[in-house]
Amino acid sequence: MSRFDTIAVVGAGAWGTALANVAARAGRDVILFARDEAAAAEIAARRQSPRLPGVTLDPTITVTGRAADLAGRGIVLLAVPAQALRAALTPLAAIGDDAVMVACAKGIERSSGRFMTEVIAEVAPGATPAILSGPSFADDVARGLPTAVTLAAAREDLAAALCQALGSPTFRPYHTTDVRGVEIGGAAKNVLAIAAGIVAGRKLGASALAALTTRGFAELVRFGRACGARSETLAGLSGLGDLILTCSSPQSRNFSFGVALGQGKSPAEAGAGKLAEGAFTAEVLLEVARARGVDMPISEAVAAILDGKHDIDTAITALLARPFKAEG
To answer: CA distances (Å), 210 to each of 58, 199, 262, 282, in order?
Structure first.
């Protein structure tokens, strides 16, 4: 058995459950870690996560609440929200020695402005960071519906090996060494999906939604290029692909959050107990963009709405009043 045949999944929510099933479907030895031991015992007994009802865990998956059980795993999939990654990883840092730790969250850490692989490198310096992102809903992935994603690591041979370890006929990872490009697509699209949801919630029409998504992609590309991302990554699964999915489906928490805002709910009401990563990412995304001189008017409008600086109608009016210019 090679070291990549043993996989740990940290986080037993919807995405963690889905990824555990993915790894088991690929024939790997999988352990799913829930940070609460009582929750782990319940999931182990019921073979279901309460965050993903109706989806049964593969019978080969071991469920644990003990961090020590993760020692020696070759791949660790970190399926926790972006803003919780540091706290979740800190007590597990020692297990990262010689392991590849794959961030499976899409965002930028609000407190530090760091991307997910940077958080891994800082908290678990003995680990090798990688990132998995792309157009994927947990329910689809868990049920084995066809899905394609991007998996990035600094070395191409490592990225390719990770794809081999996780890939199956219904879960198709494509590899790249453009780590930052993959991270940028995942972080920016969440903010843009909130804007798309606002358009839908305000019933501004399909034409407006298409325009918003397209101009949002232009923002994502400008930001990505300024951060050194490759154009093919931004136009690929983790960039354009994820943006299309997230800006068009109520299954997207960020899109649904935006719909609720567009219907007149406050950010607190719109959240309704569900995590919308874009709400946390918006301001820090803009801070990074401003530092690089990148204009991101749609993201700026979302941040202003979330901070209460503008109401939605004012933000929409401001966007529509921008000067006419060449496309690009």
So the answer is: 39, 10, 16, 21
* Per-residue confidence (pLDDT) for residue 98, from 0 to 100: 85
In the β-sheet with 171-176, what is the strand arrangement from edge to edge? Answer: 62-64, 29-33, 6-10, 75-78, 100-103, 128-133, 147-153, 171-176
Q: Which two tokens stand for residue 238?
A: 């983790």
- Active-site position among 189, 203, 265, 325: 189
pLDDT at 324: 84
Residue-level pLDDT at 1: 61
How, if at all, do strands 147-153 and 128-133 pair?
antiparallel
pLDDT for the residue 81: 95
The predicted-structure confidence for 241-267, as pLDDT tens digits, reads as follows 999 999 999 999 999 999 999 999 999
Task: Give the integer Cα–Cα distance in Å for 215 and 295.
Answer: 12
Alpha-carbon distance values, 219 to 223, 292, 294 (Å)? 6, 13, 8
Backbone phi, psi, residue 73, to 5°: -75, 135
Q: What is the C-alpha separation between 115 and 304, in angstroms, rounded?
A: 22
189 is annotated as an active-site residue:
yes
Instruction: Say whether pTM exceeds 0.90.
Output: yes
Listed in sequence order, the residues at least 6 apart from 182 whose beta carbon sits closer than 8 Å to its beta carbon are 131, 133, 150, 152, 176, 233, 238
Measured in degrees and rounded to the nearest 5, phi and psi for residue 214 equal: -65, -45
Residues of the chain with pLDDT under 50: none
pLDDT in tens, 224-239: 999 999 999 999 999 9
Q: What's the first-to-final CA gap in the chain, in angstroms? A: 50
